[in-house]
Amino acid sequence: MYKEPRLPQNAKEGILFMLIISLISVNMIAPTIIFLERGFSLDVYVDTLKILPIMWIIVMILVRFVAGPLVGKVMPNFVGKTDGFNARVLLNIVLNVTCLSILLTIIGTWVGMKQITLEPIENFLRVWPRNFGVAFWIELLIAQPIACFTMKK
């Protein structure tokens, strides 16, 4: 974006920023979505904990090689020179969450079921809006503010 103390200023800070956001996101978004799908119970939570490391790796790969480059190409088409930090961050969140939620609605189901089926594609229009909403609000209200606060400090 541009020089802003709430954003990473070098590669080391960029890695820290991505780690903070990805760890918060995976540990909050995946369990919330699974609880909404399968119900709230200790057994469901334990099952969720088993797939979190795999999901974290998948999220990191998708952010680095799919969502990041795609959003980087699309952002300049929507951002004006006078747009402020908050507008840029909000657009970045919307674009990243849209891209990742589309991919992870399918891939996450396959990982959770431990098999590749057509089910996530067949149920996509029913499931994706909920997944997007959960991911968007967690990113907007928790993950991004914590990561930006850490960068500022």
Automatic annotation (TrEMBL):
Annotated TM spans: 15-36, 48-68, 89-112, 132-151
Keyword Transmembrane among record annotations: yes
Domain of life: Bacteria
Keywords attached to this entry: Membrane, Transmembrane, Transmembrane helix
UniProt-recorded name of the protein: DUF2798 domain-containing protein
